[in-house]
Automatic annotation (TrEMBL):
The keyword Ligase does not apply. Keywords: Membrane, Transmembrane, Transmembrane helix. Residues 498-518, 689-742 are annotated as: Disordered. It comes from the Bacteria. InterPro entries: Alkaline_phosphatase_core_sf, Phage_holin_4_2, Phosphodiest/P_Trfase. This is Phage holin family protein. Pfam families: Phage_holin_4_2, Phosphodiest. Signal peptide: none annotated. The chain crosses the membrane at residues 12-34, 54-72, 79-103.
Amino acid sequence: MFEGRWRTTGSALLRVITVWAASTLTMLLLAAVLPDFHLQSDDGDSLTRTALTAAWGAGAFGLLSALVWPVLVRALLLVPALVLGLLVFFLNGSLLLIALRLIPDGRGAADPRTAVVVAAVMSAVASATSTALAVGDDNAYRRRLSRLADRRRRRSGEDGRHGGPPGTVFLQLDGVGHQVLLDAVADGVVPHIAGWLGESPEGAPPARPATHRLTPWHTDWSSQTGASQLGILHGSNHDVPAFRWYEKDTGRIMVSNRPASAAELQRRAIERTGDGGLLTLDGASRGNLFSGGADQLALVLSIAARRGRANRSRAGYFAYFSDPANAVRTVVSFAADVGREIGQSTRARLRGDRPRVGRGGLYPFIRAFATVVERDVVVTAVIGDMLAGRTAVYADLVAYDEVAHHSGPHSRDAFQVLARLDRSVGLIAKAAEHAPRPYRIVLLSDHGQSPGETFEAAYGLTLRDLVRAGCGLPVPRRVRRTKSGAEARDAARHAVLGALHRPDPEGAGEEEPARGSDPVVLASGNLALISFPDVPERMSREQIDRRHPALLRTLANHPGIGFLLVRSEEHGSVVLGPDGAEVPVAALTDDGPLAAMGPGAAEAVRRTDGFPHVADIMVNSMYEPATGRVHAFEEQIGSHGGLGGEQSRPFLLSPLTLSAPLPDGGRLTGAEQVHEVLRRWLREVNGPQVPLGAAGTGRTESTETWAGLPEVGPEVPVPAPGAGSHTRSTVARTAEDEPGPA
């Protein structure tokens, strides 16, 4: 026993000395090459004295990094992530300047700008050395993991017996469609995932037998993260008609990835289901729009609007950035990805790639945050959850979705990001081997993406321009010169004159705008919603025709639009298509105006038609089955949000040790049904879920158990986890703030 302890102590001491030596050598080298960094007195010192000075400086810097850095990061948790990233170098350089002042006889000195460079290099070298030593010593790594798990169990009051049921990790690869995953596996882009499927790249040794099954599923009409993840985590995405929509009863625009909107949507889902969510039993929610009822939160949007101690989501930054080497590495990678995006967009512009959207402004920084910062923080948090032995973890990796919006879902740029996500999946799987309990890892996506030129690029005007022209409202001169704009204005003019029973006078000027407020036009990928805010109820087709006689006909017959959904006083809600096609929603089938949209489209439209906040006019773009193209109503060449193509067909990749998603082999349709599948899997591996306070953890039932319950709207009673959940009879059928869908 004592021999083992001495061996452990000796090994730890050796690692400290090795890292210290590497840092000392790095400091000596930097002092030799950087003119504003000195480790000698003005009269010069011997090599031995200079080396001792470097050792003093390296030791002081390492000690300050270990003791002071975590305190600094915790103090800056309320600072936005991008600002924190920029402060990393300044703070690290400041620590180095303090360390140099601690050197005896004042032999250390550096220009502040040089100190930033020296500190960054030294942190990176120390991290690389420490990591290399840990990799070479599996026993040390296991002991570290064991200490982390023991520390967590002591804090929570658990007895540490983890031998029984495995935990479950749900990793959401945001925006990765079923077909994209198949293509990536076939092309050798995702070797870790391919190994789970028993696939190996061409020319490689045969893979091991498959450990996972791949199942496609179909989204609701609203094929975007807000609707899908709300349904998956909270069991209901009722009344989420799109990514953004206008609510007449409150006069506000809901946007799924705004904190206040996400909090309200989560509150409504909990109120509707009477259940806190998928993760209420010892769960963790990482990088998601919604909490899922988890107690452990990091980068969760629905609680991001909170202030003070109630917002624990930012604590995920502390877990990662408390290590200065992590901070430096991530900031360097962030800068590299900004440069990568600028280079890729420049090459695409020089090649004349089509379709193409603008990728300048802040976009390179937004992309780098998604592909580097968010990924690093979330992956580290998930690994920490597994080492702590948590029961259920759900994490969203958004990198692919962000890049595919601007580069295309099948582009080389997007597949490079997907390859890096595959390495993250492999890292999480490797870490699971050292966790105190076994883990089942489930991969899934919330939607896919469909490629295609934007509506504006194809026709020279936005949908908002077309709607205004069809209403006879003023539009910019450039819109009047387009074919679509001219036709819409002519149709509106003739419709108004016909209604007034008078001829079109020669040289007539502009028609007076129609009475009533301007329409609100909101885009959600290739789905758009048109609302007339001055009418408190959902407008009918007849009301719209009386006010704007040419509008519905103009939209339905436009080549860039597939179909419309409106309410009719005579026939109930109807779907309108080109050439006068009109089908009552009650009689709607997957042919006629919806023939190109694929199976399940009619039921998806019918379900959305019953939402309280469905728009006056729901507009779905055209879809071309031969090419898979759609037209996004916003600046995206890879889009999702409506019906048509790969956007509606995400995937579910589950271990064979879990039951099949649908034992009868039927269609898995809608996010709510996916929620039921995931909940069943948690029951299979963990047994019935019980209130946390009854599990002997020393915790009592209260609203604090439901850490994700938003502090907005009326107070909602929350039952115990698993008790009385899902009392509704509706089963899933099927359906991002700016700049676009999440």
